[in-house]
Amino acid sequence: MTAEPxxxxxxxxxxxxxxxxxxxxxxxxxxxxxxxxxxxxxxxxALGEYVEVVEPSRIVFTFGxxxxxxxxxxxxxxxxxxxxxxxxxxxxxxxxxxxxDAAIALHREGWEHYLDKLVTVxxxxxxxxxxKASVLNGE
Length: 139
Prior knowledge:
Number of strands: 6
CATH class: Alpha Beta
Largest sheet: 6 strands, antiparallel
Number of helices: 4
Radius of gyration: 14 Å
Structural class: alpha+beta
Helix content: 25-40%
CATH superfamily: START domain
């Protein structure tokens, strides 16, 4: 079973579908100037705004963390490109503007973890358990 770009795009722009692979609450308004807000715990909230949305192939939004002075809300940019690849989708993600090697490594680890979950959800429809979310939620 595979997921086409339009299917993957929906997991990136629809809050209910987004929560199947990342976060515990989300407010997504996928249009230029619209809000991107994903809560992992009350203390861990990503916030930014959509810059560009081209269905089903491209999403760009600003990104940062509420209460984080190193990576504040809207201070970085996430670009996602979705391309058909055989019967599935090639997803390319670029997160730019991070302030140094430690922030880059931390965000790379996070994106790799959650994109692995996205693959599972997009293909099987069933989200796997998420140990990382338990840590972020203080469990």
